[in-house]
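Researcher: We plan to redesign the surface later, but first we want a full-length starting point. Tokens attached.
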């Protein structure tokens, strides 16, 4: 294999050696917990405003969801409540490489949701109206137009929902590149530096306690992805959150069958910057049951039942791991966050088999390209499948940004700008009312509009 494209091209993001800090700052204006795309984008926007910000990451930058995703940057098919943020995010992505002077693999190649049935055509047509309301260029393509964009497929589609202004970026590059830009702007990004808990003073946040010492800060952002619910629970704050395993495969460079990212009931494919494809099955809802499944079942009922045919429930190691997880821990001893520096689920072999089978059935010319790498990631989601972005009412100064579901990579830069605004009190132009945590407890109807 070409040396510039190692077999562990993607997984290097989480398998390389850890680099703990040699020293940590005594204080900062803002400390961010988690160096995924959300924490890092927020740090970048704060640094640009001259805010003294430190990011603490227990493992690697983009070692969890942000380095493992499909790399789709899409407005298409979103919950209408996320639209202003994703439209702004796309605007940021378009200028990102010029802004930070680094390659993030972004290109605006469009997103296609292919429809195999009349029912799907009607569902997709409905979303065109949402796009129009937000000034997005989404339209329906008929089967002939779709065939011009997707070459050589054996599938018989009736048409597709198409957004030409959507795009893609490379997850193994993007977050790390934005992190370097944040550091050049004055931020500190500390890896192998787990935050164990929070210190308070006069009823508000006063510091974070890390495994390497304490950093005083009046403002803290918990952007801890799949760990947010556990972290917040230790502070007495309930964040309803469940996890779904996503299994992904990457091919060697292969014939170009489609420039756009293509989603079909059986297969999701994205052409990679290196000429290969990132492959997945987007309609498999692979949920390892844990005690949280029972704890939050009532709140998640609608989200879980949206696509019951897609549900694959299992019970195993994850149940007992969460069962044995303490709810609170001393801050002067090793915490659960150091025990699992990187959440690294195994790819589901049945899903991989299905991906191979569906590629062979739908794109015989791609089936000859070897699959060179496979991996999995735990996607975390909320009951209405849109994020929580809020200051905790019970703990002033403590902010939460989590639950970006299977679509937080694309919205990351837009969310970072909005969260930076929330932290500094400066208007980002993005209204965060729909993302308040209290919606899950104040009787607001829980209405997911899109799937995980
Ligand atoms: C398989 C898969 C496919 C996906 N496809 C897409 C896609 O195509 N497009 C899209 O837009 N989105 C996609 N997503 C979703 C997207 O990746 C996530 O929504 C997004 O990356 C979430 O970013 P984050 O920063 O919130 O979380 P993460 O990237 O998970 O980052 C959280 C970080 O916090 C750290 N952390 C946790 N606790 C602590 C602690 N106590 N101390 C210090 N650090 C801590 C973790 O180690 C982690 O690095 C996909 C996700 C997966 C898994």
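Model: Full-length starting sequence:
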């Amino acid at each position: 294999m070409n040396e510039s494209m190692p077999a562990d091209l993607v997984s290097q993001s989480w398998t390389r050696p850890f680099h703990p800090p040699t020293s940590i700052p005594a204080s900062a204006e803002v400390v961010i917990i988690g160096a995924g795309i959300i924490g890092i984008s927020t740090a970048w926007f704060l640094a640009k405003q001259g805010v003294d910000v430190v990011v603490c990451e227990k493992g690697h930058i983009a070692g969890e969801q942000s380095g493992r995703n499909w790399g789709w940057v899409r407005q298409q098919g979103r919950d209408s409540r996320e639209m202003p943020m994703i439209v702004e995010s796309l605007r940021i992505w378009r200028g990102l490489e010029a802004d930070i002077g680094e390659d993030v693999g972004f290109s605006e190649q469009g997103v296609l949701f292919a429809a195999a049935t009349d029912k799907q055509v009607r569902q997709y047509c409905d979303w065109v109206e949402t796009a129009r309301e937000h000034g997005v260029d989404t339209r329906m393509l008929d089967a002939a137009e779709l065939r011009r964009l997707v070459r050589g497929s054996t599938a018989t589609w009736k048409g597709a929902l198409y957004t030409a202004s959507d795009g893609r970026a490379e997850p193994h590059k993007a977050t790390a590149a934005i992190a370097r830009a944040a550091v050049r702007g004055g931020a500190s990004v500390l890896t192998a530096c787990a935050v164990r808990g929070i210190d308070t003073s006069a009823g508000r946040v006063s510091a974070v306690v890390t495994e390497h010492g304490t950093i005083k800060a009046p403002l803290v952002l918990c952007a801890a992805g799949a760990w947010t619910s556990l972290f917040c629970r230790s502070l007495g704050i309930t964040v309803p959150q469940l996890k779904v395993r996503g299994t992904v495969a990457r091919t060697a460079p292969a014939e170009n069958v489609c420039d756009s990212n293509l989603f079909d009931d059986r297969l999701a494919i994205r052409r990679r910057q290196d000429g290969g494809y990132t492959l997945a099955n987007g309609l498999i809802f692979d949920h390892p049951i844990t005690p949280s499944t029972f704890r939050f079942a009532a709140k998640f009922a609608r989200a879980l039942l949206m696509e019951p045919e897609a549900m694959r429930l299992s019970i195993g190691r994850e149940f007992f791991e969460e069962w044995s997880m303490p709810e609170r821990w001393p801050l002067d001893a090793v915490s659960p966050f150091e025990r699992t520096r990187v959440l690294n689920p195994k790819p589901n072999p049945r899903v991989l088999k299905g991906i191979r089978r569906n590629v062979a059935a739908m794109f015989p010319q791609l089936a000859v390209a070897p699959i060179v790498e496979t991996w999995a990631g735990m996607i975390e989601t909320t009951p209405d499948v849109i994020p929580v972005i809020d200051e905790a009412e019970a703990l002033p100064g403590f902010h939460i940004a989590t639950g970006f579901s299977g679509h937080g990579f694309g919205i990351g830069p837009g969310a970072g700008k909005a969260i930076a605004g929330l932290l500094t009190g400066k208007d980002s132009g993005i209204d965060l009312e729909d993302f308040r945590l209290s919606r899950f407890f104040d009787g607001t109807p829980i209405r997911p509009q899109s799937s995980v």
